[in-house]
Amino acid sequence: MDREEWGSAWVDSGRVFTREDGTDLHPETVSKSFTRAAKAAGLREIRFHDLRHGAASLLLAAGTDIAVVSKMLGHANLAITADTYSHLIAGVATAAANRAADLVPARSERAHLRAV
């Protein structure tokens, strides 16, 4: 059955993975299905949760604000995200500092800007 066939009995849980009636799946059900699919596809062993960690890592590496990533992950506070991804945050901070430095002209380029 699909959503239309369930009619008003279908539960809009807002989840990506649900039972036929829209209610929540147990997280282990999704994890086990993912593990079987990955193995069948010949992929190395990877946990479903690793996808969440990978997505957060990519978002932070791309310069997404840590508060945004923290909210997406549903962390209770920013400190959890900062502690978990501190190794990436340092790299992002360095990259941001380098981008800011690139905006400042080199001394030889500034010579003509001196006030007279």
From TrEMBL:
GO terms for molecular function: DNA binding. Residues 1-98 form the Tyr recombinase domain. It comes from the Bacteria. GO terms for biological process: DNA integration; DNA recombination. Keywords: DNA recombination. It holds the Pfam family Phage_integrase. The keyword Ribonucleoprotein does not apply. This is Tyrosine-type recombinase/integrase.
